[in-house]
Design a protein that fits this description.
flat; mainly alpha; 2 domains; single chain; 77% helix
Amino acid sequence: MLDFVDFSDASILTDPKRMLVYAIGIAVLLTAFGAAGLIGMRDRQALRLRRLTTALNGTDAGLRKADDLAPSGWKKALIPDDPSERAQIRFQLAQVGFDRTNSVEIFFLVRLLLAIAMPVVVIASVLLANAGLLSAEASAQLLSAKKTSLFQISAIGTGIGFYGPSIWLNRRIKARQSQIRMAFPNALDLLQISMEAGLGFDAAISRVGKELGRVAPEVAYELILLQIEVQAGRDREAALFDMAERMGIEEARSFALVIVQSLQFGTSLTLSLKTYAAEMRQMRELAAQEKANKLPVQMSAVMSVLMLPALFMITLTPIIIRYMAMY
């Protein structure tokens, strides 16, 4: 965009129309960067954890989820009619911290706006060039550009804007699962220690959730939410498996299964957690060994790509030189 502006042209400082266009463009860019920075800097997991902690203390009752209503009116063209698809998007958004009642509508609206942003920018640029509100160089480049090129730019921008939010959402979910996978063994150790110290399972879950609030807000949020659901009268087995589903890692599913089996058969929770913690450490060690064993194969592929051209040059260069000297 800056290539279109000729800063050496003194008429920019004397033409009010052009100065207004550039000022609006800079204001839009600053607003977009500010909004992106504000969204990126907000720790949504910490905000959700703070709200759940308040609810656990009995001072907030606004944790009930709204019913999934079918879209009506203009929303039918924006939001899918399939309830399972809406539920999947709502579940994914809730995993990364967007658990508002209208989060699905906002997601599809943002995706639509991003999809039409590039065509609008291209059309607006052409209109401004025709009106003479851009510099002579920028107007010449835009007006001389082929319609096919402008259409390709618009199509690429539309594709990026349409599929970008879904890709971003999937990456955020994978990053959250990775953070949970890293912090879950520590949470399990703290839970085991708390129960060995004499706390019950529910009290240990609440205590560990509060202790992990700063270092692992993702795990703390899930534990506190589990405790709130159990206190609200929900079946502990269903709450445990829902927590494991929200976490999205195999260790959480195994943990829920261990707790449910221990409660059903009346075995010691402390002994079950100790056994599972030992198995999980062994699984982590095996996973680390698996990654280490994969390194030689991965390094051999990289080394072959980097070394084979050099070997070919060393081997074939004398032959090429002799051939050129003979002929």
